[in-house]
């Protein structure tokens, strides 16, 4: 998130766009004797039509916290200083009187969003050339939101294999006012899991994380995890199955029926003599790795030996194997 705080005495810059990261409200300061747009004035703050009272920092921040302006289509200051569009900056402050600068700086630092290569360039006095230089610095600096709520989303192997839309109930922390304790709020979210997702895949849901008073809503980052599966194990791009055969099936051919993760049934003929550890590879029945591409299905066999044999059975086996 980008913050720009400029100070100028030039009356040409008016009706500046202010996007305030506080409950998604907009804030606007106009040039001239009034710090605030007339429509925002409220009798409870004792401002009304007296511009001198509006110069008081405490009164200013009462408006700052409770403002509810409409979004403007253009940001003249940004347009003048380099042709940047308003969408390239999250928050613009044009302050006419220097006495507000320390309070604004303190307020913005509360958001814990000021992470520039040269943070001191965010706050400056001076003319429009100074503003242009600092705005350009911030424009080229790549910033991200350092605050995020993290969680874990457990999925079945079938859900990750095919992809799915999950409805999940989560809890996030919120504060509705500075003096109020932190609450746990339950939310219901729709989460889209793409086919072929893996354990450790991160899904970001913007602004769905914790909400703290005076801060922008946090993003919610969910990390996918895989619930244990009774049949399959994901190993790289391959699906691995451990299959136990009876001794007679291991020696005399057989056919096994294997249910796939997308609900199909594979009839797999085993024509070879199978020994413990024997591996059968079936191509293109593994994990999705791209459009029309899949890994392999690997079936690793074990053999179940009978615990006891009658004398007749032992004699018959010896006769067959000795031939």
TrEMBL record:
Pfam families: DnaJ_C
Keyword Disulfide bond: no
Domain Chaperone DnaJ C-terminal: 152-306
Single GO cellular component term: cytosol
Lineage: superkingdom: Eukaryota
Keyword tags: Chaperone
One of the protein's GO biological processes: protein folding
Gene Ontology MF annotations: protein-folding chaperone binding; unfolded protein binding
Protein name (Swiss-Prot/TrEMBL): Os07g0513600 protein
Organism name: Oryza sativa subsp. japonica
């Amino acid at each position: 998130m980008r913050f720009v705080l400029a100070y100028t005495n030039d009356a040409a810059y008016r009706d500046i766009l202010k996007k305030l990261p506080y409950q998604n409200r907009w804030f606007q300061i106009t040039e001239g004797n009034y710090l605030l747009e007339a429509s925002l004035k409220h009798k409870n703050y004792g401002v009304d039509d007296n511009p001198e009272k509006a110069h008081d920092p405490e009164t200013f921040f009462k408006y700052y916290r409770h403002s509810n302006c409409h979004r403007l289509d253009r940001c003249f200051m940004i347009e003048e200083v380099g042709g940047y569009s308003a969408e390239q900056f999250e928050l613009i402050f044009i302050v006419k009187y220097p006495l507000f600068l320390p309070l604004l700086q303190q307020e913005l630092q509360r958001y814990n969003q000021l992470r520039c290569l040269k943070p001191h360039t965010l706050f400056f006095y001076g003319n429009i050339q100074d503003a242009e230089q600092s705005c350009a610095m911030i424009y080229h600096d790549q910033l991200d939101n350092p605050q995020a709520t993290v969680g874990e989303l457990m999925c079945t192997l079938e859900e990750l294999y095919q992809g799915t839309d999950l409805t999940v109930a989560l809890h996030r922390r919120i504060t509705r006012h500075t003096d109020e304790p932190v609450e746990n709020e339950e939310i219901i979210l729709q989460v889209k899991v793409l086919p072929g997702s893996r354990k450790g895949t991160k899904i970001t849901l913007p602004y769905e994380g914790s909400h703290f008073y005076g801060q922008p809503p946090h993003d919610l980052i969910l990390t996918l995890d895989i619930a244990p599966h009774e049949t399959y194990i994901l190993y790289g791009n391959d699906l691995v199955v451990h299959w136990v055969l009876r001794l007679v099936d291991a020696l005399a051919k057989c056919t096994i029926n294997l249910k796939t993760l997308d609900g199909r049934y594979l009839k797999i003929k085993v024509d070879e003599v199978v020994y413990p550890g024997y591996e059968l590879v079936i191509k293109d029945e593994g994990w999705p790795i791209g459009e029309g591409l899949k890994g392999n299905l690997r079936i690793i066999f074990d053999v179940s030996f009978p615990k006891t044999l009658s004398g007749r059975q032992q004699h018959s086996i010896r006769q067959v194997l000795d031939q």
